[in-house]
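FAQ: What does the model actually see?

It sees only this:
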Amino acid sequence: MATVNDRPGLILVVVVVLAAFVGAMPAAAQDVGNATDRPTASFNQSTVTEQRGDIAAIELDLSGTTNATVSVGSEAVNYAANVTVNDSNGDGRVTLLMNTYIAGLDTDNPVYGATAGDAVVGTNRSTAPLDSPLETSQYNLSVAVDDRRTDTATLALTERTAGELITWTAPAATFDNATNASEVAAAVDNGRITASDSVAVGDVSVNQVKLSGVYGALAVSNVTELLRSGALDFSMVQTNPSTNRPPKRLDLNRSLANDSIRVVPDPRNDVLYVNVDTRAAVFDNGTLSAGDRFESTLAIDGESTLADADESVSANVTFVGTEVGLADPSLVAGPNQTISGTTSVAPGSEVTVRIQRNGSSSIVKTNTTRVKPNGSFDTSFNLSSVAPRSTVTVRAEGPLGTGDRMNTTVGPYRPGGPPNGTAALAVPDQTTTGETVTIRNATLPDGGFVVVHAANASSDPLGSVLGASSYLENGTTENVTVSLSEPLAEDTRVVVMAHTDSNDNQVYDFSSSNGGEDGPYTANGSAVTTGARLTIVETTTVETTTADTASGTTAATATGTNGTTDGSGPGFGIVAALLALSLAGLAWRRH
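And it is asked to produce this:
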């Protein structure tokens, strides 16, 4: 049993044992009371995957600190580096950017960087330089705060790929407004760059290449130098040259020299854009012409550091002429009047449409619109101030010297839309010679025509037309006579129909337009019509000659229709007798 005198030795033994026990505890257990207060850094992903030669984005989350050190690789893979980053904007996140193309090379270019708002404050590579870019492999990642490792992850570099080449087109004006990935993306989003295998001569030929493993090189090298060195190559070769003529070819060096070729990398989406301004690009063996077909190719030299073997992707493009054409406008003196057309220039191109008074330089209206993806364009005007039935000139002016013009007559505005159910006709049964039909009255609210059809009007509205009136003003017109194109020979029933003047030219065009213009007024979905019975009578001419022995007067002529007497009838005898008696009396008086 221990005595009082032994207590100092006992206390010493207990302290030694406790110290040994605490020293054997894990670090986490030692800091149970304050572990959550320690600064830490962790990887956002356990595995960061990127193609060999591209730029890897390593995302970090920081807590309680603004600095952290990332270790990449190891002696086992002959590449090892330490990189210290700073969370300059204090948002707790840092994205470390690693250029895997130059990471192992002896270069003065910065291998590591950070996204906006953060910074790389120190780098240290502990392995010897390599002769080529980092190979495909698994590279260890770890992060430490204050020399204390807080997380690990893996960087997986995979083989680079060359996918496909897709042809697009863009307005000529877009060439200088799509110089980086964000500008190109915006142009695609708003329809100024569209996928197409045809390009108007003078527009921009956009070649979208799905490609990886080159963006590290493009980040530190001049694209023009890569193209001129042959590490990258872009070509356009004509596939339909004229007989006995060499194919046209893009002169790459001269086109680069005059800045008519622009290469825009989009590393985030593994896309490379090669934009060719066809207004200025130089071609050997002739200039671009409508109908030329080309094969566009992007190639990578296998002997360069970009690839282990030759690679290429291609696509075909056809060049077309530049045209703008207006559709036939149908305008009235009211709001929301649409003028439309089509064009071969690139979607997103601007087309200016002007309406001018005919024979005058004064501009009535001007609108600017954009070409839609299908090549059409349209714009609307308020023509309420334009006098009905006035003639105007419509002009469309597009890029690359394209344009069109036409004259048209502005019709009256009908706020309620097409006339519907307000026309009326009154036509009695009648006796006629078969050459005309008389309409007692016709009410046409917007003007038009009264048309006489045969009885089969409903089954053959075009073929049944027998005749049409001249243009009738709006309102009610009394006693309208319609002359028939061919006289009727026998009694018949006709259909009289009220027709509009839909194109406002005061000319009956229903038959000549194959029913496309001047259709009938309608009421409740049916044409406004009425029927009439025609009784046909023949026209008879009667000539009577009486000799006057005293005066020498000889001729008298009368005409009539059936229902009057002819020269052999009793009526004629009475008239002749009376006439003869009168002449005889006159002669007697003279004697």
